[in-house]
Design a protein that fits this description.
The structure holds two protein chains of two kinds. Chain A is built from 15 helices and no strands. In chain A, helix 5 runs parallel beside helix 9 and helix 6 crosses helix 9. Chain A is mostly helical. In chain B, helix 1 packs across helix 14 and helix 5 runs antiparallel to helix 8. By secondary structure, chain B is mostly helical. The longest helix of chain B is centred in the last third of the chain and has 35 residues. The N terminus and C terminus of chain B are likely disordered. The chains are: A mainly alpha, B mainly alpha. At the A-B interface, helix 1, helix 2, helix 3, helix 5 and helix 6 of A face helix 1, helix 4, helix 5, helix 6 and helix 8 of B.
Chain lengths: ~325, ~290
Amino acid sequence: MSSAADTAAGAAVAGTGRGDGPRRRWGYLFERERVLGPVMLLPAVLYLIFVVGYPLLLAFFYAFSDVTVGSNRFDFVGFQTFITAIHDPVFLKAIEHSFLITGISQALVIVLCTVLAFVLAADFHGKWFLRFLVLMPWTTPVALGAIIWLWMLDSIFTPFDWFASKLGVIPDGGHLVLLGHAGTAVGSVIAVQTWRMLPLATVIVLAGLSSIPQDIEEQAQVDGAGFWRRLFSIQLPLLAPVIMVAILFGVVFTFTDMAVIFILTGGGPGNATQVLPSWAFYKGINGGNLSVGAADAMFMFPVLLGITAIVLRMASRIGGE
Amino acid sequence: MAGTMRSREVGTVRGRIGIYLTALFFALFCGFPFLWAGMTMFRQDADLYNSQHLPFEYSQPATFSHVSSLFTDTPYLRFILNSVIIGLLTVAITLLLAVPAAYALARLTGRWGVPLAIGIFAVYLVPPTLLFLPLSRVIVALGLQDSIWSLVVVYPGFTIPLSVWLLVGFFRSVPRDVEEQAQVDGYSRIAAVVRTVLPLVVPGLFTVIVFTFTLTMQDFIYALAFISSSSHMTVSVGVPTNLIKGDVLYWQSLMASAVIVAIPIALLYNLFLNKFIQGFTLGAVKG
């Protein structure tokens, strides 16, 4: 647009553009890519080291120390904190719930996001509205989405009681109290996490779906392959890496989330929905025990490291091509 | 999605019915909570707190009073204002740091560009739930506890990685000749970039602004850990902790507070989603 005009104007004053005097040396320095590159990159890198790298290092130190909110004492106690953490029965339950909730919800997301991506890739009336609705669970701040679910699962005024009594599961006027029983509370958290993670996964898979060359499918159609055959022999294998990326994001965000637990169940009933990050919060902030909280949170690290390694390998493979 | 997608025609009648039924299922699964919230926010107390009533009918006329009391009787506006201020300041810091970094990674770092960009993106995967405990100490050391500045300092930690990743993609989509021509014409490298490349990546910049802003609205744990007084709270923390406590829960107002925030953000996302997908995949694919 205007760049063409700028270029023309620049050509007219060619040779006068470079500054002179003291600015000139700096100017030349900044013309060199080996200088300019790091100069432009460094501020962002330093900032990230300050707000992510340094705290991450601190988290490790905390986990091996006896630091609390109240004191400034900072003694190294080796693995003592971890041993304290492991001997806490709630902590072991929290690990179990973390894997259970993340595993089931993301397994559901794999199936649902693939189906939904195929639906959104098709042509039908009202598609824009479906797209809008599908994005909502993701775009709504997680805490506010959890508030809506908290009301929807209310022990007395939930609409699910009405559905359940129509289906004959409970007597008329009875209550399910979904958040009041261990099993249904875990189920509710899984439902919310599935609901929340479905949009991002769908968007990523949809992008992957649109990059499958159309001629492959057309050729298969010409060769007489039916819908299901094309789906399972061509499209799904081609989509597998993209679905994998989508799920890795989902696993990271679900495994490390505490907002849904904090608002929906508070870890209850009786710690039945306590997960690693929520337990770390209750121990570290509410309980004031920074070191135990940090040690609890640190148990997320091996999982995250593994996932990050997979993501990096996949990303660099794409980048290398 | 619609713009970048080749839509597939579905021929058979059975196929079309299948599509509509599946679409209906997903519309209900994703949209039902918002339908329920939207129906709740206009109900009168006598209508709402009566489990004998049918759930999808209004037994009393709708009322706007709970929505308006959200603005007149609660600090909700203050929460929104705080969120907007924090979001805008974070956007400013993010652009200031991410734009030069992304340009450097796209153009100036040679074969190190791709691994470095991936490395910065990996920072996005370090979760706040792992960092909030040590950061709460850092915030105290900086004297920022219970201040919105604590969040302004911390949020770029997750907005910069995503923004750099997206912007690298957008910068790579601009042909190198553009700034080379300007340099031949006598502009310095930086002037050439500012005058010729930046105007071409304006859609990318808008995308980054929208996603950075909305990402700051998503945070819960940092705001919960660092902020204690309600006048400094964000929407995400203020609504669940400050409107929900006390003996009486005003569910109509709570639902309204969620819906009022959710709808504009969803509309913004819809506008920029295609660009987001484009940047997300360009960053990796184009070499």
